[in-house]
Amino acid sequence: MKILKATSQAIKKAGLIIQNGGLVAFPTETVYGLGADALNPLAVARIFEVKNRPRFDPLIVHIDSLSEIERLCLEVDDRARKLIQKFLPGPLTLVLPKSSLVPDIVTAGLPTVAIRMPSHPVALELIKEAKTPIAAPSANLFGRLSPTTAEHVKDQIGKKIDLILDGGKTTLGVESTVISFTEDDARLLRPGGLPLEEIERVIGEVKILRQNIKKPQSPGQLPRHYSPRTPLRILTKDVVIEKGIKVGYLAFKQPKKKLPYEIVEVLSPEGDLREAAANLFSCLHRLDESDLDVIYAEPVPEKGLGRAIMDRLRRATSEDIQNIKEF
Ligand code: TXA
Ligand code: MG
What we know:
This protein is an alpha/beta fold. The protein folds into two domains: about 1-210, DHBP synthase; about 230-320, Rossmann fold, CATH 3.40.50. It is built from eleven helices and 15 strands. It has helices at about 10-20, 40-50, 70, 80-85, 105, 120-130, 150-155, 195-205, 275-290, 305-315, 320-325, and strands at about 1-5, 25, 35, 60, 90-95, 110-115, 135, 165, 175-180, 185-190, 205-210, 230-235, 245-250, 265, 295.
């Protein structure tokens, strides 16, 4: 495995690796993705192996041009068209009925495919060089923290893939918002980098899919999906921080006074939700690597990007990992 700075020469090389059925980790504006040729089922199968990901967890197909949507999807809902016009390229993934071009392994047998056109120049150039849409989940091991730097990718899966394109730290830091249009309603399957409020301003009310743990409609809804290995608790008024153990503290804003904990990570000194989202996974990675007994996280306001942050924090707290095995 190699890490290369994402120069145009390195991206050309990466494109060839994808064409030949290999795996390349690459930056997007949200998190790093682990990419393979979406139209090559064998290459896609390797993604599941590397991530230890259940086969039936569908992948997002990344495109570099909106015209690809017509090729990959059977039909495009009017509301989806509006969102495409307004927000793509960007941190929004649309679930639409798939065309026969998309292999079943990509969609885990579902009749729908998740489509995303990232705005990151390296991601777009890579797809262009590969001359094929790229199927890519986040480049982490299944159920673990998503990577926002090339280092995170290297630590989790570096040995098992062909190349990591290093494009520095990702700017948004949380995964894309996932919306489906397969039923009568538009549905939010995963809150993410594009705030729900902005989407609703364009297409009106979006249903928030209630979590159905027994039968998740989107595996991003697994209760524990973005987890550090260290136990994590969200601070509420009645949670008392334990004494005599090594505590890590995830603060939303710069604390007013010095806190008596082993490590304190601050998501955004001024309390800016965008900055907090960008730093979320790096802060959690650092805390997770610090040999702590427990991490306490301050809640953030649940609006805009705060919704995605709280969603990831809640999943990280769930001790019920039964459902992952079941899934
Ligand atoms: O920001 C992102 O979306 C990143 C970057 C790399 O693009 N990718 C990412 O992929 O987060 P992944 O595989 O970790 O998450 C994809 C989510 C999962 O929750 C998956 O279940 C859902 O999208 N999904 C994919 N295809 C679907 C489908 N056909 N129907 C419902 N949900 C789907
Ligand atoms: Mg993921």
